[in-house]
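ok trying again, last paste got cut off:
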Amino acid sequence: MVKNRKLVILIVLAVVLVSVSISIYLNKKATPHYQYAYLDTNKVVQTYNQSAEFQQLYQKAEKELNEFGHSLQEQINKEVSDLEKEKEKQKQGKSAAKQRALDEEYGKKLQKLYEEKQVELDNKKAEIYAQLDQNLLMKIKEATAKIAKKRGLPLVVDERAIYYGGIDLTEQVLTVLKNGGVQENE
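nice, full thing came through this time. structure:
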């Protein structure tokens, strides 16, 4: 009976050990093995900037900036003309010393006007190019998200953050961007 008892205990222990081993094996199999991907953002931006689509967006931005600059120049011309008329009116009947003082005063007003308009132009330029950059980044994110979702990739980072491993999605993202946001096998 003692022998049977030892045999039963050994069998129970063997069954428990096998069950635990199977459970561990199945848990490892059931746990998804994620792969992470990266993107050479600089290459994507440089390549996309050479595309016809980007060139059209860039030309549109340049046209908007030129129109704004032209409008601003017209404003400057009018304001300069108004200042000149005002200065000449102020100078009438004044001594040469007062006229020189008025010339200096209006010279400072003109300089201030030009500086203000230059700031206005710089701000508009920054706004237009920021919109262009935002548009580009949105397109890159959309293309990257499509590819990552299709491949079951939970994370895509910039290449500069990777020291080892990962899947390079750069060419696939460029292909999607070149195809107007459509993957080849959709």
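cool. The chain is about 75% helix and 5% strand. The mean pLDDT is 84.
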